[in-house]
């Protein structure tokens, strides 16, 4: 029997005629066609032989037929079929094509080609096809089948928009599982394994599409047994539904959090005293209110954007800007916000990439999925910087969230302006203070002397801490440290007045108690409501004898290389309180090798640090550095156990000569 007769006798009917069949080689070229096929296509054997059968059937769009051809060569079962187009009877028709691989050749073990059978679709098949196309074309749905033996996954009626978005060119199950969210991959794999036991499939899971956006999916499938068991089902993109639920949950959470936190955090902004405090509030404490996974701030400085605080070395920075960036670069979201002072909210990677292609490289280095980029305004809507909040999943910022972000950014702008003005005032205050301190102190061969003044970080106002070393007649040295209570120009003026008074009275008085008493009388008689604590002692360079008069000053610390102790001279009231106050004199000897520390209370006392504890910490620190007065001074200024809430003045003296 000839091959043509075999094909004709194998037909099951095409209408009332035998089924149309062709034999094609692996490349798709027709090697044999039965009479029914030539009749139904209207082409002679000579026209058909050698031509690819998909293009003979459907010259306009042969892709579905080619996919069927490749599936058959790949070992797909005969139940794999496709609806293709064919021209016959003067019109184009949709017909069902079924393909089966021919037996393998002995030489390479691969199928020699395929046999393709064509038939008219049943009315139900055509109806199902139309409904499926409508369903997948206008909704986020795909119809799929999974061969449980080969792991090959494909769509039932050709590519759908959702299928192209999720899979692209990938068709293997392992390729697609690699895009499933790591927290869901175990459940998805377990469910697929269960399907090998004949169970139906249903799972909700998250998956990243080929753009990198996270999608929430709902997959359902029915198990179909047979020689080639498979799952056939649907997959729906329920991202919008999940996002809606998240938005409602976020809104409830945000409203609850706002009631507890926003007022407190806004108060912190108002009281912030450094740029780092302001930006730290925005990055560390404000972002969690909105459920943000991270935040960053970039400040405009001389036409450039700089991260504040600087990101760690392994951090990409705000939108990849880990270093200085041109503030006028509108190709970048941050620069665009600075330029037009308009906030920008991006709910997905695709959205930001469409508007700002320049961030494509950055997106490869971050797991963030959505962003809010808010301008930080100063007076007259001058852009001071940008605040950016990022989320680890798609996030829709509600109108209330957006309004609150803008409000907080506005408060941050006011705080930044205030802090910068305060910093300018601090620089001025520091300059004034230092001009009023002695530009140079007296030096003596018998003494090692170190002095330090450190302005407070809080308050940003001129303060009145001071020190002085006075050369006295008879190989004696006057040492004084004081702290004028209050702030401002008045305190600084009083400090200058007291220091000059000490020098004037010390040159005419041997008794330190009398020097302090005269200074007290002078300050009291000025009529100004200013008073000061101070400690004044006279050191004899020949025998090391110290005579001290104290007016409310902290105890002195005397240290050696091995130990330290506190010297608490008998004290009178602060100067300026009572013009008739007396100041007793306390005597002690400073031996060779001893180191003396006199300091204002800013070094050892604050609201969070009792003076006894502060003196203990200072004594322990000084003990190990008693032989190096400059090193000891530097160490104490770096230590500042009581913090930086007040000015600090200190004077360290080491007795080098014989005591």
UniProtKB/TrEMBL annotation:
Spans through the membrane: none
UniProt keyword terms in alphabetical order: Hydrolase
SMART domains: PAS (SM00091), PP2C_SIG (SM00331)
The keyword Hydrolase appears for this protein: yes
Pfam families (UniProt xref): GAF_2, PAS_3, PAS_4, SpoIIE
Keyword flag Hydrolase: yes
Domain of life according to the entry: Bacteria
Domain PAS: 16-64
CDD domains: PAS
Coiled coil: none
Name this protein carries in UniProt: SpoIIE family protein phosphatase
């Amino acid at each position: 029997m000839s091959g043509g007769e075999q094909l004709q006798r194998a037909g099951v009917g095409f209408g009332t005629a035998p089924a149309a069949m062709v034999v094609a080689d692996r490349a798709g070229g027709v090697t044999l066609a039965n009479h029914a096929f030539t009749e139904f296509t209207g082409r002679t054997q000579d026209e058909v032989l050698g031509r690819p059968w998909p293009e003979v059937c459907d010259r306009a769009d042969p892709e579905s037929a080619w996919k069927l051809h490749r599936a058959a060569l790949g070992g797909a079962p005969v139940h794999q079929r496709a609806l293709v187009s064919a021209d016959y009877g003067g019109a184009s028709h949709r017909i069902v094509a079924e393909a089966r691989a021919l037996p393998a050749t002995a030489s390479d073990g691969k199928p020699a080609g395929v046999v393709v059978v064509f038939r008219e679709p049943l009315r139900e098949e055509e109806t199902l096809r139309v409904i499926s196309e409508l369903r997948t074309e206008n909704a986020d749905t795909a119809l799929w089948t999974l061969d449980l033996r080969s792991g090959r996954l494909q769509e039932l009626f050709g590519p759908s928009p959702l299928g192209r978005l999720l899979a692209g060119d990938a068709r293997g199950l392992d390729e697609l599982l690699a895009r499933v969210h790591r927290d869901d991959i175990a459940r998805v794999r377990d469910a697929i394994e269960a399907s090998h036991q004949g169970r139906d499939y249903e799972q909700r899971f998250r998956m990243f599409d080929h753009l990198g956006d996270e999608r929430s999916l709902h997959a359902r499938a029915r198990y179909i047994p047979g020689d080639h068991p498979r799952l056939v089902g649907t997959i729906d993109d329920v991202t919008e539904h999940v996002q809606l639920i998240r938005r409602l949950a976020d809104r409830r959470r945000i409203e609850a959090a706002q009631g507890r936190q926003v007022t407190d955090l806004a108060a912190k902004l108002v009281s912030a005293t450094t740029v780092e405090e302001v930006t730290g509030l925005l990055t560390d404490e404000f972002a969690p209110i909105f459920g943000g996974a991270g935040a960053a701030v970039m400040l405009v400085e001389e036409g450039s954007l700089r991260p504040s605080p600087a990101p760690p070395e392994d951090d990409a920075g705000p939108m990849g800007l880990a270093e200085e960036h041109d503030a006028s670069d509108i190709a970048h979201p941050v620069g665009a916000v600075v330029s037009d002072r308009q906030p920008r909210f991006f709910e997905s990677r695709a959205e930001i990439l469409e508007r700002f292609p320049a961030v494509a490289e950055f997106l490869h280095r971050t797991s963030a999925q959505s962003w809010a980029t808010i301008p930080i305004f100063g007076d007259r809507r001058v852009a001071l910087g940008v605040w950016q909040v990022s989320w680890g999943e798609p996030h829709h910022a509600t109108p209330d969230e957006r309004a609150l972000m803008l409000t907080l950014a506005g408060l941050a702008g006011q705080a930044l302006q205030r802090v910068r003005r305060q910093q300018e005032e601090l620089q001025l205050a520091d300059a004034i203070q230092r001009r009023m301190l002695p530009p140079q102190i007296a030096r003596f061969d018998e003494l090692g002397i170190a002095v330090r003044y450190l302005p407070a970080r809080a308050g940003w106002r001129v303060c009145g801490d001071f020190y002085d070393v006075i050369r006295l007649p008879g190989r004696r040295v006057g040492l004084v440290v004081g702290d004028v209570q209050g702030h401002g120009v008045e305190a600084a003026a009083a400090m200058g007045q007291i220091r000059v008074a000490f020098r004037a009275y010390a040159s005419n008085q041997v008794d330190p108690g009398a020097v302090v008493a005269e200074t007290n009388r002078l300050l009291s008689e000025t009529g100004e409501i200013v008073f000061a604590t101070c400690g004044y002692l006279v050191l004899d360079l020949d025998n090391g004898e110290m005579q001290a008069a104290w007016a409310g000053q902290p105890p002195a610390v005397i240290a050696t290389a091995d130990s330290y102790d506190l010297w608490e001279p008998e004290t009178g009231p602060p100067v300026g309180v009572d013009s008739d106050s007396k100041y007793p004199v306390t005597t002690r000897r400073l031996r060779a090798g001893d180191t003396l520390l006199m300091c204002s209370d800013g070094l050892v006392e604050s609201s969070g640090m009792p003076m006894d504890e502060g003196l203990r910490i200072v004594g322990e620190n000084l003990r190990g550095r008693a032989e190096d007065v400059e090193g000891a001074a530097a160490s104490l200024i770096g230590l500042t156990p009581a913090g930086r809430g007040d000015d600090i003045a200190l004077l360290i003296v080491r007795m080098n000569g014989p005591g």
